[in-house]
Structure formats: C-alpha cells, structure tokens
Amino acid sequence: MTGKEYVEADFREVADNTDPHDRYTATLDEHTGDLTENTLRALTLQLAGAPEQHTDLGANTHGDITLAITHTTNTNISHLINVLCDLHPGSTTHLNGTNTTATGVLGDTRSGELEPGPLLDPNVAFTAIEQFSSLNTDTIDAFTQILDTQTYSFSNSNYRDTVPAPGSILIATEFKYGGLDQYESLIEQLNLPPTITTSVDLHIPTFSNDSASLHTDIEPFSADFAKAYIEHIRTLDPTLTRETRIHISEYVTDLKTRVDGLDDLAWEINQTRLTNTLTRLSLAHARLQNNTSTSRSDAKRIIALFESINETLGRDPEQFDTDNDFSATLVKPDSDSPDGYTHRPDTPISEISEELPVLDVYNAIRTLENSYSDGAPLDGVISECREKNIDEDTVRETIEELRFVGEVYEPKQGTLRST
After folding, report:
1. Which of 354, 334, 83 is nearest to 220 (CA)?
2. pTM for the complete prediction?
3. Is the pLDDT of residue 36 over 50?
4. Which among 41, 164, 301, 308 has the fewest CB atoms less than 10 Å away?
C-alpha cells in the first residue's frame, strides 16, 4: 500500500465518530461521478462482502454479494468498474460482453483438467462484466447457474465435474433502448433475463444523479484510507445476532404476505432467497461499521435500501390496490436528457383542479428537497404549507394529485421529490 500506513486504532476512530457507509458513498461519488445514491450504497456493500454462514442442514449461505446494474448509455460504466477493482483488496477481473465467451469466463478443459477462468478461479474475489446483454446464450446460461448455485457443472466429453464458483459478481448492461422510454414500465426496460434478475442480490436501475440527492456535506475518504479500510474490514467475521435474524424474518414474511395479496404481479417473493440476501447485506453493513456482530439497525438500513431500489422499479406494495400490477408504473424521461425526468406531456400540472393549491405545495417540495439527502420530508412540506394557511388534508390531497400526474414521486416512505 502506498502513502500512510494505517492501524486498527485509525479504523476504530473512524467507525466510532462517523458513518463509514455514508463516507464510502461519498467516496465512490467523488471518483465515479453521477450515479444514484442507491447504486453507490449497494456497491459499497459489495466491496465489504460478508462472511459465509454455516448451516446444520443443506449448503452453507455464501457471503459473496452479487449485483446487477442497468444504466443509461451515457454512464461511464468502465470507469466505475476500474474504481471498484482498484478499491478491492483481492484479485479482480474486468470483462466486456462484446468479446467474452463461455470459455473465457469458465476456463479451458481441453486437456482433461480444468484451467479455471475468472468465475471458477478461487483466487479471483471480484468479477465485473459490462455489456452483459452482448454475451451469447451459452455464456449467459453459465452466469445464471453460477449466480443461482455458486457452482458450475461441466459435462463435455473429456471433463465432467461440478466445481465451486466463489467470488462476487457485478453485471452491468444498458437499458433496452439506451435511454428511458416514458410509456413502458421500467421493469420491462431492464434488458436482462429474468433468471439473472432473480438470482442476484440486488438489481439496481441507475440514472444520471441530481447532485443534491447525495450527502454532499459528508467528507469522502482519501484513496489510501478507502483501500486500507476495505482491506481491514474484510478480515472481520461479524456474528449474525438473533435480533437481526428475527427482524429480517418478520420483514420477509410480512412482505410476502402483502405481495401475495396483489393480483397479476411482475414480482414474486422467494422467502429463502430474500432472507439470504438481506442477511448477507446486513453482515456487510456490520463489517462496514467495523463491528463484530450485527444489530437491528444494520437490518433496518439494508431493508430501507432494498425498498428504495424496488420503489424505483415500481415495486411498492403500499401504493397498489389488489387489482393493480407492480409493473404498471411508467418512467417519465426528459426528451433532452436520457436520464432526466420532466412533466409528462399528456398530464401537465395545469390539469389538476384549480381548487387545489398546486403551486404552493409543489414549490414547498422543490424548496425542501434540496436541503435533505432523501428528499423533502412530508412533515416539512405540511409545515411549510401551514404557514400559507393550507390545512394538512388539502396538502395531502394535492400531493396525491401531483403524484398521479407524475410531477412528484416518493423515493422512500414519508419523503417527496419533484420529477
């Protein structure tokens, strides 16, 4: 490592006095540019990884975190991957789907012995592949099996064996149309096979980011410290506490109940898979905090990230009646910017009833959203409007109308952003 040599006391001081997850988010933002906060937070968790969880029956639960990112054409995904590879303390591989074959990722077996490729090489801790949709079918099938089972089975004439596939994987591909189509649901534009999207821990749509949505007041780590801290925490083996397990279990059970109560879903909940994902991510979060065990707060922050990503995809069971579909939410891109959002041409703000204080409420949201990392707090909007003699019920009704016509959205429960 170049630069200053760090010791345990340095890492402990940072974890005790700041939030390392926030600071890594700021660090990645500083070095990768305009990616959404959800993307940066998930990538930080992937860098941290989690320890393997041993089970009494069946296979152990692996700790390698796998992510898929769907991005717009103007995202510099190659630079992002290079930054992640530089930060990762283990051996890494950066692939491109336009010139990658199944042999290139799995290895060569012509000699009767396996000469492993990056996905099967026990020494490769992190594999990232961009332009994933350009891969041929055989290579995509290989990724699918590895993501789902952490193994790969060879069955050719001179080599038959099932071998482990350790290491975390980052898959990146562009949206189906490059940018965003305003009249097709976001889920239908993700451009990845369903087998891939259901096998990764998180599938994240990422857009050009409004800088105000990031924690711009949080100091990023220096490059040297960022590398040293990740190297240190990856040696930690935090314990999964009972309270964390219970919190995750109760959340997954409740979510499945709510989702199963909706008809014609584009989203199904596999309880075991989701429990394992939230467990891995909670352990990774505990590592980031330099802790030796998980807490309920680790699980709560991970669930908030999971819900925020799924709300972006249009998957929010709190906002749908039983006769609606998660995939019905449409994205509304700005015609001048493939990543941006603007007013929908067919439902302008002027169509809202003139009896509602539309501009007062809308301007309150616009004013407050730049002062908070997660958007304008609903309570703050109500308070701002109360000063203009607008009662709470009217504010809430106006917000619902603004949401209906696509002028505002709710990035997380209780917060608002203009489009």
Report:
1. 83
2. 0.75
3. yes
4. 164
